[in-house]
Write a structure and sequence with these properties.
Layout (H helix, E strand, L loop, with lengths): L9 H14 L12 H8 L3 H13 L3 E4 L3 E4 L4 E4 L6 H7 L4 E11 L3 H6 L8 E10 L2 E11 L15 H9 L3 E12 L2 H7 L6 E11 L4 E10 L3 E4 L6
Parallel strand pairs: 3-10
Antiparallel strand pairs: 1-2, 4-5, 5-6, 6-9, 7-8, 8-9
Helix pairs in contact: 1-3, 2-3
The structure holds 2-amino-2-deoxy-6-O-phosphono-alpha-D-glucopyranose (GLP).
The site of 2-amino-2-deoxy-6-O-phosphono-alpha-D-glucopyranose has 14 residues, from helix 4, strand 6, helix 6, strand 8 and strand 9.
Length: 241
Amino acid sequence: MLDKKSPLPMYYQIEEDIKQKIDSAIYSERETIPSERELSEQYEVSRMTVRQAVTNLVNEGYLYREKGKGTFVAEKKIEQPLQGMTSFTEDMKQRGMNSSSKLLDFTIIPPPADIKRKLSLEEERQVYEIHRIRYADHQPMAVERTFIPVALVPGMQEKDVYGSIYEYIEKNHDYTIHKATQMIEATIADEEQAELLDIVPAAAILHIERTSLLQDGTPFEVVKSSYRADRYKFISEIHRS
Ligand code: GLP
């Protein structure tokens, strides 16, 4: 099983073996893996070595521990490409997952200063503030606070934002959504976010802020999103030269 003569440390070889068992579904998602005692017998190493391997895999998000219950295989993270400007609804559809939203708040407000600036709004313009939990196959993935100028999308109602806001805007207003700037930052969940996302407080969160423009260059939305870091990772292709 393990190559005791290899220069690779034992804990590392165990990690690789466990990862391979997760990949080939010998250990399935949300199921327990064998106990430390069982693993140390199986690999013929000390429990400390096993613990180190398991702890590393917990820290990397492959496994998670539940007090008194054992160590479980985490669900695979969703890999989100960073290139395309897609909507949450499109992202989920592409993966064969079912998207839905819970509307927490839908109000019309004078824009906070940073939103006003990012949307290049004049003094008196109002914005919709739409606060939603986004679900994939009924599991909460993100909470999003979206700001859209009322003047650009007049008459938008609560019923219009349960599904895709992008689809609503493009279909009902004959706009073409063109491009966005996006910022991603690591944060930790506060109590409210943790409750909404069904994670423990202080769990890792990916805070994403997007400012989006229509074809003619008009900014039409600012979105502040908090994505679960245990369920998401972002990938991009990069070129040298
Ligand atoms: C993603 C982006 C948001 C964007 C949203 C639109 O979640 N992070 O910035 O507003 O998609 O999604 P939908 O059209 O499904 O409402």
